[in-house]
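Changelog note: in this version the structure field was regenerated for every chain. One regenerated record is shown below for reference.
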Amino acid sequence: MAAEARVLVVANRTAESPELLDALRTRTLQGPCAFTLVIPSTPHGLVWAADMHGGGEEAEQHRAAFVEELRVEGLNVEDAKVGDPDPLAAIQDECNFSEYDEVIVSTLPLHISKWLRIDLPRKAKAATGLPVTHVVGSEI
């Protein structure tokens, strides 16, 4: 029997999107896996200008709602946490503390995604050396 793959899932405003949920369901069909969710506390809109660390409360709301949704779906969620406001730092922090086999990064569509403007999926792959799957989600 194959060992359970450890999958790091990174999302914020797309955390509860149907696209990300479908991607995680699809991943479970590839073999046993356990998901760890990291929701960077990235603020957006006017909050960003006033306080770079102002996204924590919103990130916590996404985290709690998404964990509940995944567990209702029967997906194996090992852990879920709010991470650094900088999404790449959040990924690196998590990979420094735990070992993962792959990363799934969920972003908004290109025309509105700050994470795609900084090329987060490519940078995550370069920083971790892990395979990275990019999911474009819709904001809920």
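Spot check on this record: DSSP finds six helices and five strands in the chain. The beta strands are 5-10, 33-40, 77-83, 102-107, 132-136.
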